[in-house]
Amino acid sequence: MKPHAGVRVTTLVLAGLLTALISWGALKLVLNVSTVAHPTWIGIVVMIFLGGGLLVAGWQVKQFRDGRGTQSLSPLRAARTLVLGQAGALTGAVLVGWYAANVLILLPDSDIASQRDRIWARPCCSPAGCGRDAGPVVVPAASQR
């Protein structure tokens, strides 16, 4: 049996799509368009910071595994980096799904300038969620080879 190489991209895509579908349905049934929360820029910065931190941690594990590491690395740290990377990837996929659902809710009112401004803030957050996915997807793949 082939060892599992981390979180599969299909799992991330399915998690994002499922989150978007459930979030869209819940927002459509429960909330009014005016009550959809506006994303903050600090959230984007935090997502990028966490993704970058995971990428650095995963790169250190990869360097050590390849014999180019300058520091010693415990197996526990490598395992924790792997698990944190997988959790970060799934979290990023869910965030992208949430922001996509928000855009779908606001899209019918895109002819209103204030709603258009709210719509454009969400695609700015989605790449941050994808960026959060990029580091964690690399971490598990690098850590298990």
Reported for the largest beta sheet, the result is: none
Strand content: under 5%
Spatial gap, N to C terminus: 15 Å
Mean pLDDT: 77
What's the helix count? Answer: 4
How many β-strand runs? 0
Structural class: mainly alpha
**Apparent shape:** elongated
Please give the domain count: 1
Low-confidence stretches: none
What integer value in Å does the Rg equal? 18 Å
The helix content, as a percent range, equals over 70%
How do the SSEs run, as a string of H and E?
HHHH
Please outline the helices and strands.
Layout: H1 9-30, H2 41-65, H3 75-106, H4 113-143
Key features of this structure:
76% helix, single chain, 145 residues
Task: Give a quick rundown of the structure.
With 145 residues, the chain is an all-alpha fold. It has helices at 9-30, 41-65, 75-106, 113-143.
Write a structural description.
The chain has 145 residues and is mostly helical. It has one domain (20-31, 39-143). It is 76% helix and 0% strand. The chain contains four helices and no strands. Helix 1 (9-30) crosses helix 3 (75-106), helix 2 (41-65) packs antiparallel against helix 3 (75-106) and helix 2 packs parallel to helix 4. The longest helix is centred in the middle third of the chain and has 32 residues, at 75-106. The mean pLDDT is 77.
